[in-house]
Design goal:
The protein has 163 residues and is mostly helical. 60% of the residues lie in helices and 0% in strands. The protein is elongated.
């Protein structure tokens, strides 16, 4: 949901700034990126990864998140610039397809990996409340096998049926 909201903010603002706003494609994309990045961080920090306590301050965490998303934005801008200036697809609709379609798809792969690894990653040997990935260096033979989830997220098991 966080990604969908961020994509909607990015795409909606880009279309508005590029069309009725009359801004150039790169300026419109840069501004829409800032809005989308902020929406994505809020959605991830307060939603998706809310049970993972930040290892650093929220401000520093946002800085790393911004850097990961900036790398993704560079991918989008390159797609947009190649389409608009190199290939000659200059209509606003072409810009939307290149920057917010193709560019966003490629950038999403980088953003997902970077966000999960660098921003909201878990330390080795820990288990999140949702029982998600325990992080690198865990598992059989490493001496840091992930144990059962304890605390409020632990669920009671139903009694075994039959005999």
């Amino acid at each position: 949901m966080a990604g969908t909201a961020a994509y909607a903010a990015d795409l909606g603002l880009f279309v508005l700034l590029r069309g009725p706003g009359g801004l150039g494609p790169l300026t419109a994309k840069a501004l829409s990126f800032l809005a989308g990045c902020t929406v994505a961080y809020a959605g991830n920090a307060l939603g998706t990864y809310r049970r993972r306590p930040p290892a650093v301050s929220r401000a520093r965490q946002y800085g790393v998140f911004f850097a990961v998303n900036l790398a993704g934005a560079c991918i989008q801008l390159v797609c947009l610039a190649v389409s608009h200036y190199l290939l000659g697809f200059t209509r606003p609709r072409d810009d939307v397809v290149a920057g917010s379609g193709i560019g966003m798809a490629l950038a999403t792969v980088l953003r997902f990996w970077g966000t999960r690894t660098f921003v909201f990653g878990t330390e080795a040997g820990t288990v999140t409340a949702a029982g998600a990935d325990a992080g690198p260096g865990t598992g059989p033979g490493t001496g840091t096998e992930a144990g059962p989830v304890r605390g409020p997220a632990r669920r009671k098991r139903a009694p075994a049926a039959g005999g």
